[in-house]
Write a structure and sequence with these properties.
Length: about 240
């Protein structure tokens, strides 16, 4: 394994970078931020490793976003990363500005207009709040989607990601509902039902149909308390909601 210590920026560095986006637009578009690494006091050691071989597999092009492979590569590049540490903006700002800068600016192409570019960079190169960390940052979103999918039972991580990534609205519905994304039985049952649809007509991916299923599941789950049902009961309930 080709690895090195995983680092993060200090808070003051994140603040300085965020305040100087306009001055650094050239670096975001075609340059780099290696100058920050020249001062060791800008960095903190996370007491974790980054596998550089997997990190190198995080690639995209204007024709192919390569989401599935990038999710797998980021997740495998950061072995041992905990959800607690993965909520630290300092880590993701370091990764988007250092190891994954080229990927980030290709995957999230920076607008030509400077004002739009500043807003765009704040969204995808930084990570403010839960939404910024779980859904917006160019790299953290890949890790968090992989973490969610790693909780699914009976399906491989690769297959789960394939099903999960197929339709953005369906993905958002799952991520935005903690009762679904954090409950292993519910998450596994919903993904397995989606996998059945993915393998056939993909009808469950229709926006309104999936939203209706999730609405029904929330209504019934509120009464039956999904947390206390066993897996077979949850699967039966999910099937009822999907077929209603």
């Amino acid at each position: 394994m080709k690895s090195q210590n995983l680092l993060m920026f200090r808070e003051r560095v994140v603040a300085q970078l965020k305040a100087s986006i306009k001055e650094n637009l050239g670096r975001y578009r075609t340059g780099d931020f290696n100058f920050v690494l020249s001062d060791a006091t800008n960095l903190l050691d996370c007491d974790k490793k980054i596998d550089l071989a997997f990190a190198e597999q995080v690639t995209a092009s204007s024709e192919n976003q390569n989401e599935l492979n990038c999710c797998l590569a980021v997740y495998r590049a950061l072995p041992g990363l905990t959800p607690y540490l993965a909520r630290d903006e300092r880590l993701w700002v370091y990764l988007t500005h250092i190891h994954f800068l080229n990927y980030s600016r290709i995957r999230w192409e920076i607008p030509d207009d400077d004002e739009r570019a500043i807003s765009h960079i704040k969204t995808h190169f930084f990570a403010t709040g839960a939404r910024g960390i779980e859904r917006d940052n160019a790299i953290s979103r890949l890790w968090w989607m992989s973490l969610i999918c790693s909780r699914v039972e009976r399906l491989s991580l690769e297959r789960t990601l394939q099903v999960f990534l197929h339709q953005s609205d369906v993905r958002a519905n799952i991520v935005e509902r903690p009762t679904t994304s954090q409950n292993v039985s519910v998450l596994s049952s919903v993904i397995e039902k989606l996998e059945e649809s993915y393998a056939t007509d993909k009808a469950l991916y229709e926006r309104e149909r999936f939203r209706l299923m999730m609405k029904e599941l929330n209504l019934k789950g509120g009464i039956k308390l999904l947390e206390v049902l066993d897996l077979s009961e949850v699967k039966k309930l999910v099937t009822e909601c999907a077929d209603s």
